[in-house]
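FAQ: What does the model actually see?

It sees only this:
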Amino acid sequence: MQKTFIPTIRTAMMTLICFLYFGNAFASDWERRATGPTYAEYFGAVERNGEVASMLMLRDYVSETDFDGVTIRSVQTERLFNCKENITRVAKYDGFSEEMGMGELVLEKKGGDEWEKIAPSTFLEYALRTACVG
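And it is asked to produce this:
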């Protein structure tokens, strides 16, 4: 009995250590920035290259939602902001089957090439300021 008990504890301890060490290796740090009746909006990593900033944004839906004909629970967007011109465009969308960008990747879509002007006093203006100013 004691011979099987020690390897079981050792296996459990190794699993726990691996989970604690690697558990967040693939997670992004999300900061909640807005809440609507059917979703919550989060901002993630920001990278800036000259006048253009790239920011990851995550929309987490309360329930399953149709997005371009695919059922998702969350969508991660890489959005580009031209900080000088106050314009934006989406580089790509990734739709997930579970909340917070978890579960199966069920949608991958490239964004358009056209930039759009950001209207004042909108959520996108808030995102632009966050990405460009910090």
